Amino acid sequence: MFGVTILGNNSALPAYDRHPTAQVVTLHEQLFLIDCGEGTQVQLARYKVKRGRINHIFISHLHGDHYFGLIGLITSMGLLGREQDLHIYGPAPLKAIIDLQLEVAATTLPFTLHFHAIEGSGLLVDHPKYSVTCFATQHRIPCYGFIIREKKKPRKILKEAAIQHGIPAVYYERLKNGDDYETRDGQIIKNEWVTFANTPGRSYAYSADTIYDPQLADITKDVTLLYHETTYLQDQSDRAAARFHSTTLQAASIARDACVKRLLIGHFSSKYEELSPFLTEACSLFPDTELALEGTTYLIL
Amino acid sequence: MFGVTILGNNSALPAYDRHPTAQVVTLHEQLFLIDCGEGTQVQLARYKVKRGRINHIFISHLHGDHYFGLIGLITSMGLLGREQDLHIYGPAPLKAIIDLQLEVAATTLPFTLHFHAIEGSGLLVDHPKYSVTCFATQHRIPCYGFIIREKKKPRKILKEAAIQHGIPAVYYERLKNGDDYETRDGQIIKNEWVTFANTPGRSYAYSADTIYDPQLADITKDVTLLYHETTYLQDQSDRAAARFHSTTLQAASIARDACVKRLLIGHFSSKYEELSPFLTEACSLFPDTELALEGTTYLIL
């Protein structure tokens, strides 16, 4: 299963029972949490997402509607006795914010929290079965989008390397599947030393908050599902630009130019109670568009 | 109207649709927010509390279940265009936490935020019509409870002082009512310079988080309504003490010894889904006890 479940689709502040931004990407058995607005831990419980299976959290930028729920989620994980490591990726100052709040509460987490500061575009996670990369977006403060790519199986064997590491041919099928190999004396031969990726698999891109930026079409070229913010309807394009946000037609044109398979739109301004005009406008330019609705899982096919 | 509306009655983390601690005290036209767990801004909206009328926020201590919703509430107030001053009272490190989060978001609030560091027991707000004092409780980190006292009207005139300030006798009724006096040349004669308080009026005490501490009975002596935490039922008294919390019978004994009129119990541990045993146990010692239920307003009569 590869899909994204929307936990919050609103910008700035909660309104009309819409929550600030958060979404969880399921890829096989892994859960990746992207952004974590206030109340995300309650939304995780409401939609029965197993927080214990979240090992990676990505925070796009430090506007509150994208991360005010993070410290509550982390401390609740601790109170619930989590033991496995947690990896958080976000702008560097986020570490000081977390540390300060743990320190004043005299809290020692029962698990190891690895903080990875994002300082530019690049590779964040490289796993034999998937990768996560980030890219900078144009917003009022430093902001990053993320692309999660499934590495297509089976992987291809680097025969010479496999022979050199003494891996028996009978094990090749497992290598193609992404497994590491353990030698008799306990040495681990990493899968990526003896295989290479097949042609690209399915992918999900989250554009975070951004002013209309045609370069995003190159960055998200050919992804399977693109989530692009549409804070405003098209008639508010001046306001959108002034606030470093995008409109429906701008998101749709990025999707069209990037030749993505499907577009998901969200991060709606609290000024709108009714969301259907967003869908109508975006579909007029890019028909394979859907509204990002809370509690809904969008499959990446 | 003098009453307290419960917005969150749970300890540690959200559970069973109970929220972390927050409550709003209404006294005449003033709203005082006491503690502000994650999701408080949503709870304020749910129970139709006008956030624009909140000018004072009191934070008991820096465990997340008592303040993680504060930064979201403050920034939302700013996004909604609040202009009037906001006063926040809490442990000193709270200021750095707020400042850091505003700074990384490049946020300038459109209103003035006055931060008042609480560093010991004493008077926080002194108004002709009410006062707010704080007292230290015994918890794992520095923690404070609050007492909001209505000053009983009419106030009594200090005749000599009133004459000395040239206040005409025809104005005495307004002085008794708490009003200041303005002289012909625009000088303000503060009400408290020429009057003194009548016998005590109604009062509300919030004990915050605390281990069982008999001194609290002296501190909250004769208050009209006491909110005392009951994180655990009586059979968990060892666990309560180890975690610097209180049980039902401990809260009830404070209420009894303080001769309060009514006791409100809350801050329930997430281990309990059913709350009625809390009421049964506390009432066995102090019958005028009520459960602090979210969305309910308890009048202070």
Strand line-up in the sheet with most strands of chain A: 6-5-4-3-2-1-18
Tell me, what's the shape of chain A? globular
Domain tally of chain A: 2
Radius of gyration of chain A: 20 Å
Largest sheet of chain A: 7 strands, mixed
| Straight-line N-to-C gap of chain A | 9 Å
Biggest interchain interface, per-side counts: A-B, 31 and 31 residues
Structural class of chain A: alpha/beta
Q: Could you name the CATH homologous superfamily of the largest domain in chain A?
A: Ribonuclease Z/Hydroxyacylglutathione hydrolase-like
Number of strands of chain A: 18
Count the DSSP helices of chain A.
10
User: On the 0-100 scale, what is the average pLDDT of chain A?
Assistant: 95
Order of helices and strands of chain A: EEEHEHEHEEEEEHHEEHEEHEHHEHEE
Per CATH, the class of the largest domain in chain A reads: Alpha Beta
β-strand percent of chain A reads 25-35%
The protein's oligomeric status is: homodimer
CATH-derived architecture of the largest domain in chain A: 4-Layer Sandwich
Low-pLDDT ranges of chain A: none
Structural overview:
- The structure is a homodimer of 301-residue chains.
- By secondary structure, chain A is an alpha/beta fold.
- The first copy, chain A, folds into two domains: 2-152 and 199-299, Metallo-beta-lactamase, Chain A; 153-198, no CATH class.
- Chain A is 25% helix and 29% strand.
- The first copy, chain A, contains ten helices and 18 strands.
- In chain A, the strands form four sheets. A seven-stranded mixed β-sheet of chain A has the order 6-5-4-3-2-1-18. Chain A has a seven-stranded mixed β-sheet with strand order 7-8-9-14-15-16-17, with helices on one face. In chain A, strands 10-13 form a two-stranded antiparallel ribbon.
- The longest helix of chain A has 12 residues, at 93-104.
- The first copy, chain A, is globular, with a radius of gyration of 20 Å.
- The interface between A and B is medium-sized, with 31 and 31 residues.
